[in-house]
Amino acid sequence: MSPDDIARLFTRTDGTYHFARWERPIVPIVFGVEDETLGVVKGACEAVVAMAGHKMAEMDNEQGANLFFFFFREWEELLAVPDLGGMIPRLEGLVERLEKAGASSYRAFRFETAGAIRAGFVFVRMDEANRALSAEALALNQMARVMLDWGEGAFAGASPLALAKGRAVLRPEIAEVIVAAYDPVMPAVAHDPSHALRLAARVGR
């Protein structure tokens, strides 16, 4: 990918550049699935984190878990989740907007003081389109989207996934950007578009 291609992945709707990755080890927890699917989701998490060269842990000392996956049928079900309103500001208004938009998924982040990702929230409504996907594809897709704080239009034209011999895999160029983003010499947070030049220099190494 060219530097311009990479810059577009982290450019906001107002034209500003913003990049953030995780610093602390990722501790996932999954709600709303059966045990078999739970293993698939955690397996996708482990695979993407390992690919990036990042770490997972059994517990976050401050938060317990820090990456929350919610699978459900209707958005209004979120209003009954204990304590979720304390983690997602203005939850009722958000649920109303997502219902009106017919959204199939939503992601939210909380950030460290310096701007790195502190916690991630992945909400997946099991509508017809999502039910048509394999559990592996659904989990891998969401995991790719939550590893970095991508721009709103990063995947507007294409999914981060591709098919290889009938299996869902990350598109190679997206996988390369994630790996480059977690290079230890790269910053966890960046607001200058020149950051995309540094990512481009590491892509495909």
What can you tell me about this protein's structure?
By secondary structure, the chain is of the alpha/beta class. It folds into two domains: 1-21 and 148-205, no CATH class; 23-133, no CATH class. It has helices at 3-9, 35-52, 84-87, 91-101, 128-131, 135-146, 172-181, 194-202, and strands at residues 19-20, 28-31, 67-72, 105-111, 117-125, 161-164, 167-170, 189-190. A four-stranded mixed sheet has the order 2-3-5-4, with helices on one face. Strand 2 (28-31), helix 2 and strand 3 (67-72) form a beta-alpha-beta unit. It starts with a helix and ends with a helix. The mean pLDDT is 94.
Number of helices: 8
Q: If you compute it from the alpha carbons, what radius of gyration comes out, rounded to the nearest whole angstrom? A: 17 Å
Global mean pLDDT: 94
The major pleated sheet works out as: 4 strands, mixed
Quick structural overview:
The protein has 205 residues and is of the alpha/beta class. The protein contains eight helices and eight strands, in the order H-E-E-H-E-H-H-E-E-H-H-E-E-H-E-H.
Descriptive labels:
205 residues; alpha/beta; two-stranded antiparallel sheet; 8 helices; globular
What is this structure's SSE topology?
Elements: H1 3-9, E1 19-20, E2 28-31, H2 35-52, E3 67-72, H3 84-87, H4 91-101, E4 105-111, E5 117-125, H5 128-131, H6 135-146, E6 161-164, E7 167-170, H7 172-181, E8 189-190, H8 194-202
Parallel strand pairs: 2-3, 3-5
Antiparallel strand pairs: 1-8, 4-5, 6-7
Helix pairs in contact: 1-8, 2-6
